[in-house]
């Protein structure tokens, strides 16, 4: 029997191991032990059983190396395989099958759903996303640029690190899923607003005090209104006039004037007339404490009340409502002061614009020039240097003191006697020694006179000589320095030596 001879060693194929393909299974025939007879009998029985099974299950085809009738044609096919006599068609199919397996192994894990493979008949087949891949290949496939894939740019050429996306790309609004457990139907139409907590009394004073003090520097009431709108002052806004007046009592007259303007501008936008009345009620109640720091507080509070009535932010009946009901001496003095000031106007309907004076840097230049001119004329009549100095300081315009120097020198040039000359020299000397007028303001005043002396000389023929003598006296008194004196212009005199006469002096009659 040929099979027996093959088992005993006469027809060995492929060394020590032989394979027999039949059906869906694959059996391996090996030599087991040194007894050849026992081994040959076992192998013979096993091969015969496989041949019998293959003939019975010929209809059950599989996807193994040989499919269909080529693999299960009969016993001859199996004998040829065992004896090593392979047909040419079988070898070709085996090569194609091995090539297809190599292509499948070549595709990486990241390209498992996009690679191409070759079928058993040699056609190119697009593999689906479910094609299994080797976990071992996933483990060792770490390089992203290993030459695998289709070679297309990522994300269509847009996106990535430092890129916003393709030009014209519009992102859709993310819609909330209704089936989401955290879904809230009220959340889709809600609008968020910034909530500012209301200020208490302590926080109100700490926040508003810097705003009022800054207002004393710039004088812009609109900016104060904008800053107050950002604060949630709530019901405590009636404390704003009281806080502003309390700070103004410790300041200058210009600060009190600015406070009156601030209250007038804020009434109607930030404050109401009722808030102003409530604030002045608290001021009258706290006058005994305010007097300790500011002895003139009753007088100033009365002027604030009169100015508020004149500006129309406080009713006239406010003062009448306190008649016969005030026990505090300071509150009664404040109300009496307000009544007197309002009686000076026509029925209290006229505005009291100058209750705090006409000084301050917020005043127009024309008004300041008039005030300085009146100050000098009153000084020439009274001769009181101290009063003139006090009035100049009350104007609160240190940057405009050069106007007083200019007006004083011009009055000296236009005066006919020596009285004005001596009094103005005394006034300038006093203002210089008391440091009311600085060197810079003194220099600017004299420079203005030097520039306008040609025009002044048209009206005053001896203006040059008088100016030169006055500047020399000021230099001797220490009012001006050497530089100011040297810049004093002098009128050109006639020549007493003729250039064409050989240097001879001309007669005195000339």
Spatial separation of the terminal alpha carbons: 173 Å
Summarize the main sheet.
Answer: 2 strands, antiparallel
Helical amount among residues, as a percent range? 40-55%
Unreliable runs: 1-34, 55-73, 106-115, 127-132
SSE order, one letter for each helix or strand: HEEHHHEEHHHHHHHHHHHHHHHHH
What's the arrangement of strands in the largest beta sheet?
Answer: 1-2
How large is the count of helical segments?
21
Radius of gyration over alpha carbons? 57 Å
Structural class: mainly alpha
Number of strands: 4
What is the approximate shape?
elongated
- Strand-residue proportion: under 5%
Described by its quaternary structure, the protein is single chain
Q: What integer is the average pLDDT? A: 75
GO molecular function, one term: RNA binding
Organism: Pleurodeles waltl (Iberian ribbed newt)
GO cellular component, one term: nucleus
GO biological process, one term: negative regulation of DNA-templated transcription
Can you give me a brief rundown of this structure?
With 510 residues, this protein is mostly helical. The protein is 52% helix and 3% strand.
Fold and architecture overview:
The chain contains 21 helices and 4 strands. A hairpin with a 2-residue loop joins strand 1 (18-22) and strand 2. The chain is elongated and about 160 Å long. It has a two-stranded antiparallel sheet with strand order 1-2. Residues 1-34, 55-73, 106-115 and 127-132 have low confidence and may be disordered. It is mainly alpha-helical and 510 residues long. Helices cover 52% and strands 3% of the residues. GO terms for molecular function: RNA binding.
